[in-house]
UniProtKB/TrEMBL annotation:
ATP binds at residues 206-213. Residues 189-376 form the FtsK domain. The lineage of its organism: Bacteria, Bacillati, Actinomycetota, Actinomycetes, Streptosporangiales. PANTHER family: DNA TRANSLOCASE FTSK, SPORULATION PROTEIN RELATED. Residues 441-457 have a biased composition (Low complexity). Residues 437-457 are annotated as: Disordered. Keywords: ATP-binding, Nucleotide-binding. This is S-DNA-T family DNA segregation ATPase FtsK/SpoIIIE. It holds the Pfam family FtsK_SpoIIIE.
Length: 457
């Protein structure tokens, strides 16, 4: 090769590298699908046996293999080297040998952030075996995380993500479906959906500045355009929810107002119960359309304030509000009253009613917490990995949370950033959809559409 050819070859290589760099920078998605993913997939398949073995997922099996053995053609192997009668040759033989057999890896399917793949379980393996080695697999594949996202008898589906999809969350909370909001993204790149008709009550816990109010903003923004009534309990003196008053059918900001508003809610539930009984319906969704009452979503901020008492005088109020909130939680699901209860911690130290209330809040959202007990309290008897994930949430990522539904599955998720101004604008824009409180509490079916009037209990 002469000097000019070498220069041309080097120039071509440099141009190729620059082109690749520019492609990756300006069109990362197409670069991922066309170049990075095929390269990664090849590497995953080529190294799978070693990786599975290193992660303890492979099994030892006996297999027939050709082997290359040293065989003495004449004399004995034990004779000394000087003994020329011992002649050793290499001979191919078919023998049964022990080999490491990795679980079968099906087709890797690319996703915008990584890939999904089904793995056939070896006999005796369960999906949990793969959950436990997620971190090892992530290191072996040089990716951000590997999680088990689905399982069927004999198979698990793994999701590998190249980078944390929760670094920047850009998604609209409005879904257009009744009682459903999309407050953020899950770590697997899917939208995080809260569907109150599936999981009616939610506990939203986290330390101060962990993102609880932002999530409440996202929920308000998502629900504001829907024909639902929103009710606020703001025991921070009203500073959190007062800006959203135009879209709230009622707002209580003091202990006294809370007791009155909770009594009203219990009455609403009782009336709806009677309505359903009269029409032989098990829940409001089985009533004829024209009788179906407006669903109510109740947001409670800083729930501990409802349960704390400074002196004996407050004891009765606390006990009344705790009982009423518990009744709403117990009966609300069937009668269209749903709860989102926010607080820094919601432990038994606040009183006996709290534990009962917590057990009714089947949807759990655990933002960053200051102590491991709060994570335990919020996530209950979840998988220990969920607790570890909750404890590992960094202060620099407000809005990140571990969420768990009633089916026991859990996800890392992050809410989309919704500023107070945005939520306030949505509340003003859809103020005309707020049913008046008097209309909601009147016996009989309520219909939306009145101007909102925050309650002064
Ligand atoms: N998903 C998010 N993305 C980006 N920033 C966020 C997110 N959630 C919250 N933040 C930011 O984190 C800060 C704290 O959030 P937020 O007020 O919601 O916390 P909090 O838990 O309600 O705190 P406190 O209990 O003190 O009211 C705010 O400045 C907010 O802008």
């Amino acid at each position: 090769m002469n000097y000019t050819t070498m220069l041309v070859a080097l120039g071509a290589l440099a141009a190729l590298a620059a082109g690749g760099w520019a492609w990756r920078k300006w069109a990362p998605r197409s670069f991922w699908y066309a170049v990075e993913f095929p390269a990664k997939a090849t590497l995953v398949y080529l190294t799978w046996t070693h990786v599975a073995s290193g992660c303890g997922l492979a099994r030892k099996r006996r297999r027939w293999r050709f082997t290359l053995d040293a065989v003495s053609l004449a004399g004995s192997v034990s004779r000394s080297a000087k003994d020329t009668s011992a002649v050793m040759v290499q001979q191919r033989r078919v023998r049964s040998v022990q080999v490491e057999k990795a679980p079968r890896l099906r087709l890797l399917r690319p996703t915008p952030l990584g890939w999904r793949v089904w793995v056939k379980l070896h006999d005796g393996q369960v999906p949990d075996d793969y959950v436990k080695v997620g971190e090892r697999l992530a290191h072996a594949w040089r990716v951000h995380a590997v999680r088990v996202i689905a399982s069927k008898p004999g198979r698990v589906q793994l999701l590998a993500t190249m980078r944390d999809p929760l670094t920047v969350v850009n998604i609209a909370p409005e879904t257009g479906e009744l009682l459903t909001v999309r407050p953020g993204m899950l770590e697997n790149g899917q939208p995080w959906i809260i569907d109150f008709r599936t999981v009616p009550h939610w506990l939203n816990a986290g330390a101060t500045q962990s993102g609880k109010s932002n999530l409440a903003n996202a929920i308000i923004k998502g629900l504001a355009p829907q024909p639902v009534a929103l009710v606020g309990f703001d025991l921070k003196g009203g500073v959190e929810f007062t800006p959203y008053a135009p879209r709230l059918s009622a707002l209580a900001t003091t202990r006294g107002e809370c007791v009155g508003l909770l009594d009203d809610l219990v009455q609403v539930v009782t009336d709806r119960m009677a309505l359903c009984r009269t029409h032989g319906a098990r829940n409001i969704w089985r009533l004829p359309d024209h009788l179906q009452p407006v669903p109510i979503v109740v947001l409670v901020d800083e729930v501990a304030e409802l349960f704390l008492m400074a002196d004996k005088r407050e004891k009765e109020e606390v006990s009344k509000s705790a009982t009423a909130l518990l009744r709403v939680a117990q009966l609300g699901r069937a009668f269209g009253v749903y709860l989102v209860v926010c607080g820094q911690r919601i432990g038994s130290d606040l009183g006996p009613g709290v534990t009962a209330l917590r057990s009714q809040l089947s949807g759990r959202i655990c933002h960053r917490v200051n102590d491991p007990e709060t994570a335990n309290m919020t996530l209950g008897d979840m998988d220990p990995d969920a607790l570890d994930a909750a404890r590992a949430i960094a202060a620099e990522t407000p809005g990140v949370a571990v969420i768990a539904g009633q089916d026991g599955s859990w996800h890392r998720a992050r809410s989309v950033y919704v500023s107070e101004e945005e939520a306030e604008a949505a509340a003003r824009r859809f103020a005309h959809l707020s049913p008046g409180w008097s209309e909601l509490t009147a016996t009989g079916p309520a219909t939306g559409g009145q101007a909102a009037e925050p309650l002064a209990a």
